[in-house]
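Cross-check.
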Amino acid sequence: MRVLVENEGTDRWLIGKIHSADVTNCKNCMILLNEKIVCLRTARIIETDAAILFRLDKQIEEAQTEHDKIAQQIDSLDKALEQGY
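Predicted model, tokenized:
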């Protein structure tokens, strides 16, 4: 997201603020996903039912995929800021 203003210095400042907020939100999501993955793995350790184990495996896989997508999003935001967008 780029905020257009007349002053280039202000423009970069606003872009930096928006970038910082986006990265902070992404990092907060990653923290929550890490906690979710730990909880799912803990539940998997004590579970014996095959159907529930399968479901837990799928939930862990989905959470890890989402975690990876957010990490890529943070990288994209960083690259966009470096390029001045």
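DSSP finds two helices and no strands in the chain. Residues 8-46 form the longest helix (39 residues). Passed to J.P. for a second look.
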